[in-house]
Design a protein that fits this description.
The structure holds 2 protein chains of 2 kinds.
Chain A lengths: L14 E6 L8 E7 L2 E7 L12 H4 L1 H5 L9 E2 L14 E2 L2 H18 L4 E5 L10 H5 L8 H6 L2 H9 L3 E4 L6 E5 L11 H13 L3 E5 L5 H5 L2 E3 L6 H15 L5 H7 L5 E2 L14 E4 L4 E4 L13 E4 L2 E5 H10 L3 H8 L3 H15 L4 E4 L2 E4 L3 E5 L1 H4 L4 H14 L9 E4 L52 H4 L3 H4 L7 E5 L3 H4 L3 H10 L2 E6 L11 E4 L8 E3 L6 E2 L2 E3 L12 H11 L3 H11 L18 H13 L5 H7 L4 E2 L2 H4 L13 H16 L20 H7 L4 E6 L13 H8 L7 E4 H7 L6 E5 L4 E9 L6 E5 L41 E7 L3
Parallel strand pairs in A: 6-20, 8-9, 8-18, 9-10, 20-21, 21-22, 27-31, 28-30
Antiparallel strand pairs in A: 1-2, 2-3, 4-5, 4-22, 7-19, 11-15, 12-13, 14-15, 16-17, 23-25, 24-26, 27-32, 28-31, 29-30, 29-32
Chain B lengths: L2 E6 L1 H7 L3 E5 L5 H6 L9 H5 E2 L2 E2 L3 E5 L2 E2 L14 E6 L8
Parallel strand pairs in B: 1-7
Antiparallel strand pairs in B: 1-2, 3-4, 5-6, 5-7
The chains are: A alpha/beta, B alpha+beta.
Chain lengths: 839, 95
């Protein structure tokens, strides 16, 4: 039994148990002090090289999630038949047996009739192995845009370039770091705690950081230079810098482009490679003055640039095609789009290429590598836009100009998990592109099976935001069934999807909603049954997700007895599968997803129920050997180690990476034929291009329609996703920081619009409007209004936290006009009109 | 005759009616083995998984942990291999 402490607890009291933080997706190593069965302190685990003993504010506040008085600790069912965002569900406690009986019956009916009628909103990144439960059920539907909001275009391009899932500059060797729309190393994204330490160390040894952001973010505030830029125009800035390198300075890594990419492959007028009779892509042989297969010419005789004729066939190298595109992207023209002076573009481009030391090498552990200690890093703010594919490819190509992809000091791929880079040979000496790393490319299908139209995005990342269109206009998309139920699994689609009103309408139409979560959310306001999961301090798993510098799993283990009458999500999902008669399919799905199929000795018996510990023990042993099962992890806490240079640098070996994305063009042309065959000739396919360029997005066009300002949303290290904002500790800290106090606007804009801090203002976009208190600051672009994610929640069970209700996503639109037509990435910026409200 | 240990997952388990099986078969290739695995609909697994002599793109076969390419059905089997058959999952998503 727990005893009441009246004096401060000494670090020597009780036990320190190794485990893994669950406050965001990445899972830092932690030690939890437990005294008399009560968790009293969480610290970073210094033995874990991922976070090096560091821990962000969220991790430090983890105990508050465990002991939050508003946690749901018993299964509950709804008694109020009326549903809505502000309808009290009228929860009453029920037994697990009754809860399973209801859910098994309701979802079981749907499964028998047509399993596609279940919409699944799946979160909980650390349990990514469980994301296949809907597939075992039989539903392809993905009713959330949480992952797509940030990485919809980012992940497919990373996977296509080097078989990675994410990317980051080389903390250890980089000397000049351009940061665009990202919090890496400062406030967010990849493994914040360890990354902040690595960033700090790099700054101490003299690394320079230049940050482009519409707002003076933490990264911008701590950078050597902050360059305010209009939202969604970062690509124009980088195209302008690329123009400077290619056309003005003529400084780029010719050897890298020629020998490690397909930039020298010859392109015909139709955009496809010029192939020989055997189908091999060709290069221009300078010595022979003729085209030859790419592997038949000595490197020094390969033309990287230029236009040529083979008889009557006009040819250009892929590099030359982009060079010609860049001709128009002068800094002066790009300055008009970005609001950044042309002189700044020229200066940063020059500093970058100076720092890149093109031609230099470095010896690491006895091996010589190219050394390019300058790189451009980017994330959500710079590429979560309707032309996100072009954004991402532009940033990769700019890095390729410096020859810095996956070399010391440069821009490094970050693998999805312990399996490392997905490397296998493709066509023409190239790395096989792996745009989809979570599942294979779905074949085109009409009518589509999925409500988010995954069959229409062969390089896409699951465009959950399209549900708002497809579910309310199913005939337009040929959907031949109507969903009737939603499974919420640690996901709050009301909060993370654009077009909030439409999401509410979709929820209203559902006959049954079940939630598996820890706390109530806006989305669970529509739930009929609530199945309470355990927190990260009460549950078990192995986690390895997007680690920038390390590899290997951290181990989460229960550090205290579970509170209340909760169950581990694994048990909940398994019991539901059993009740509906597909436990065998669920076990087999885990056999595939966990990689047991490749190591048959570890295959789960489909006909047996496996406990949580049995499952994770099997998983651990399948990766680390039979002497490193769960018992080993309980003692050691993790199997995390630094990635070796061989695992980090040039992972693609002698294979080439794409500079010219011919395969994307081909996919687009193939899709055009398929859409035409089914009579959908107007489906947008214009972003399936082999090279990026500037074109106005709908956001720019909205500006011409009278929406003068931009609105952006942002987050800092205190918060991630929706649920940290309902934690009193974190909320209290946030409220002391004025950037989270209201809708940010620049003092010059405030003066012009006669708005003072505290005034109520309304932002109206083509999609909707939000209201909030104005917060006048200096650190934001004068044409931009900033909305912290802290003020976006609306229904909070925790009365100690104030709902502020400025739900940014009401300003966004989920239609194809605001969606990247190649990747399905959504537009995260809105154009707005602004008005000051009376009273 | 060679012996193969077969693990059938998901859809292929339902086709075959078993999840694990050890089979002594005639011949020497993966294709030979598939032809000798009867399915519940009265055909054989080869008929269900193979189209125009190639493994269908919505199925996978692993031999001792290594995934076969679609044109590798003539891969020789020595006997004692562990063969896993399964359908490709195309809707693993979250976020």
């Amino acid at each position: 039994m727990a005893t009441m402490h009246t004096a401060p607890i000494s670090p020597n009291e009780g036990r320190w148990i190794p485990s893994t933080c669950g406050m965001c997706l990445h899972g830092c190593g932690i030690k939890v002090q437990v005294v008399d069965g009560v968790a009293v302190k969480i610290e970073g685990d210094p033995s874990n090289p991922d976070n090096l003993g560091k821990l962000c504010p969220k991790g430090n506040a983890g105990i508050a999630r465990l002991y939050d008085s508003t946690r749901v600790l018993h299964p509950m069912k709804r008694t109020n038949p009326k549903k809505g965002l502000h309808e009290n569900p009228g929860w009453v406690k029920i037994s697990w047996e009754e809860a399973y009986e209801i859910v098994g019956r309701e979802l079981g009916k749907i499964r028998k009739e047509d399993p596609r009628k279940l919409l699944c909103a799946i979160g909980d990144f650390q349990r990514i192995l469980f994301w296949g439960w809907p597939a075992a059920f039989g539903s392809p539907n993905f009713f959330t845009s949480l992952g797509n909001y940030c990485g919809g275009s980012y992940h497919p391009v990373n996977g296509s370039v080097d078989g990675s899932f994410a990317s980051i500059n080389d903390y250890e060797h980089c000397n000049y770091w351009i940061q665009i729309g990202s919090g890496d190393g400062f406030s967010s994204h990849l493994h914040l705690s360890g990354s902040a330490k690595r960033m700090a160390d790099a700054r101490m040894r003299g690394m320079r950081v230049v940050s482009l952001d519409p707002r003076c973010s933490v990264a911008s505030a701590k950078a050597d230079e902050w360059i305010p830029i209009l939202p969604g125009t970062d690509r124009a800035f980088v195209l302008g810098m690329a123009h400077v390198l290619v056309h003005e300075l003529r400084r780029y890594d010719r050897e890298f482009l020629r020998d490690r990419t397909n930039a020298a492959y010859l392109v015909k007028g139709d955009g496809y490679f010029y192939r020989d009779a055997q189908g091999k892509a060709q290069v221009w042989d300078i010595a022979a003055n003729a085209p030859r297969p790419w592997d038949a010419v000595a490197p020094q005789n390969v033309a990287l640039e230029g236009a040529y004729f083979d008889g009557a066939v006009q040819l250009r190298t892929g590099f030359q095609v982009w060079k010609d595109i860049l001709l128009e992207n002068t800094p002066e023209k790009m300055a008009e789009i970005t609001s950044v002076p042309a002189s700044t573009m020229r200066r940063i481009a020059g500093e970058f290429v100076d720092a890149a030391q093109i031609g230099a090498t470095i010896q690491i552990q006895g091996k010589i590598y190219p050394y390019r200690p300058a790189a451009l890093n980017y994330y959500r703010g710079s590429q979560s836009h309707a032309n996100g594919f072009f954004d991402n490819v532009t940033y990769k190509l700019f890095n390729m100009l410096a020859g810095n992809i996956d070399v010391p000091g440069g821009h490094l791929g970050v693998p999805l998990d312990h399996r490392g880079f997905f490397v296998s040979p493709g066509e023409d000496g190239m790395l096989k592109p792996e745009p989809h790393q979570l599942h294979p490319v779905p074949p085109f299908k009409y009518p589509p099976d999925s409500t988010h139209l995954m069959e229409w995005f062969p390089i896409g990342f699951d465009a959950g935001q399209l549900n708002a269109e497809t579910l309310l206009n199913p005939e337009r998309f040929g959907l031949n069934y109507r969903p009737e139920a939603v499974l919420l699994y640690h996901s709050n689609p009301w909060w993370n999807m654009p077009e909030t009103d439409k999401i509410e309408e979709i929820f209203q139409r559902m006959k049954f909603v079940v939630a598996i979560d820890i706390q109530e959310t806006e989305s669970t306001q529509w739930a009929d049954v609530f199945l309470p999961d355990r927190t990260f301090l009460e549950s078990t798993l192995l986690n390895c997700l997007e680690p920038p510098a390390v590899t290997g799993h951290s181990f989460r283990q229960p550090v205290v007895e579970p509170l209340g009458d909760t169950q581990d999500a694994y048990d909940i999902l398994t019991e539901l599968a059993e009740r509906m008669g597909f436990r065998d399919d669920w076990n087999d799905l885990l056999n595939i997803v966990c990689g047991f199929a490749a190591k048959p000795k570890y295959l789960l018996d489909p006909n047996k129920r496996h406990s949580v510990d049995e499952f994770w023990d099997q998983y651990a042993r399948s990766i680390y050997g039979d002497d490193k099962g769960l018992e080993w992890f309980k003692v050691h806490g993790h199997a995390v180690r630094y990635r070796t240079p061989e695992e980090t640098y040039l992972p693609f070996g002698n294979l080439r990476i794409p500079f010219y994305f011919e395969f994307v063009k081909r996919l687009g042309d193939e899709m055009r034929v398929k859409f035409s065959e089914v009579g959908l000739k107007d489906w947008p396919l214009d972003n399936y291009q082999p090279l990026p360029f500037w074109k106005n997005s709908q956001v720019i066009e909205d500006g011409k329609a009278g929406y003068e300002y931009y609105a952006i949303t942002f987050k800092e290290s205190l918060h991630t996703f929706a649920d940290t904002m309902v934690m009193p500790w974190l909320s209290e800290v946030s409220e002391k920081d004025s950037v989270h106090g209201g809708i940010l606007l620049n003092s010059a804009t405030a003066h012009k619009l006669e708005i003072k801090t505290g005034d109520r203002i309304r932002l109206t976009s083509p999609a909707g409007s939000i209201e909030g208190a104005a917060q006048v600051v200096e650190g934001i672009h004068p044409q931009v209004f900033g909305v912290s994610n802290v003020i976006t929640r609306q229904v909070l069970s925790n009365k100690r936290v104030r709902a502020k209700g400025s739900h940014f996503n009401r300003l966004l639109t989920g239609s194809m006009l605001y969606t990247d037509s190649a990747t399905g990435g959504l537009e995260s910026t809105a154009r707005v009109r602004v008005e000051r409200l009376r009273g | 005759m060679p012996i193969a240990k077969i693990a059938a997952l998901g859809t292929t388990r339902k086709m075959l009616g078993f999840s694990r099986h050890t089979l002594e078969f005639e011949g020497s290739t993966v294709a030979d083995l598939l032809r000798q695995l009867p399915t519940l609909d009265g055909n054989c697994l080869y008929d269900s998984l193979v189209c125009d002599g190639k493994l269908r793109t919505d199925f996978a076969i692993l031999v001792d942990g290594l995934s076969l390419k679609s044109d590798q059905l003539d891969k020789p089997l020595q006997g004692g291999e562990e063969i896993v058959t399964m359908a490709i999952i195309r809707s693993l998503s979250g976020g």
